[in-house]
């Protein structure tokens, strides 16, 4: 990838229109976003070479935060520099943000119709199955990266188990395990890093500031999600759940499950779940602030780091760190299903969870597009929840 950004002839209005369109139709999360961006930038408009786009995917996956959002920002940056990155990133993010804030306002307000509460309870019941589906889908590529050496594969299994246990048991301390597995793999592969070649790792998300309240607390939670979390997607769920439910008591477990489900069925990245958390904490200002703080690091990473992506993705210590933290992230995604399942309250919800797990497993075997299957599963679970409400089953 070249360090020079910007292609003459690509107007900002074109970037706004195309990135906004992807933001509106991008139901399905990162796989859908990547496919739509590739079709636009590589296949249809030929703005980027195929190898450059693949390198961009690899580089943005090295960064903390939502990788598909960073890919969208980077692609726009390559076309029109800083202005393109800002316009493209904002237009990509805003459609899903508007939808999730509207749904959060509806579901967190008083007087929600019983059918809507049932829909939320049904969709929330399927979230744990979606988490397992996401983790299983990531495992083959990570396993292949580990290589064929017996010791490397045993370490991979150990990292996976460590991440799963940490997500299930430790809450906000999860990121310490992710960092530790990455550093351990660096030491195993390259020796103890010296001062000039040390691996840059994120600060622990377990850091909390109990004295913070209101918008300051929302900012802190959103910053941890957007700037300090490796893996993105479901790996942030146990971290947000600990803050939103246990530490600050902004939401109940059921409301948090609903927020995660909303983040899955709306267009845009899963990280937008943090906007629903911010709304629960401080209304519309809290939701907007949470989104701003959570996504700001993605813009900074691209604007400041874009010219250096080549060195980042070929650095042996960085690659070793990812080889250790990668399986731990997958384990964390799988492990997040445990607290999500424990948050369920009613027997019919466990039945919905079992049905969702079976359907997603069948969809994977039939090679149904991963996140299309996820969205359909959540919508089906929501429909079951509506039926449960109509039958008079408990929903809250």
Automatic annotation (TrEMBL):
Query: Which domain of life, per UniProt?
Result: Bacteria
Q: Where in the cell is it found?
A: Cell membrane
Q: According to its record, how does it sit in the membrane?
A: Multi-pass membrane protein
Q: Which UniProt keywords apply?
A: Cell membrane, Membrane, Transmembrane, Transmembrane helix
- Which Pfam families does the annotation name? Chromate_transp
Q: Entry's InterPro entries? A: Chr_Tranpt_l_chain (IPR014047), Chromate_transpt (IPR003370)
Q: Where are the transmembrane segments?
A: 85-109, 115-136, 157-183, 203-223, 230-250, 287-306, 318-342, 348-368, 375-395
- What's the family? Belongs to the chromate ion transporter (CHR) (TC 2.A.51) family.
Q: What is this protein called?
A: Chromate efflux transporter
Q: What is the lineage of its organism?
A: Bacteria, Bacillati, Actinomycetota, Actinomycetes, Mycobacteriales
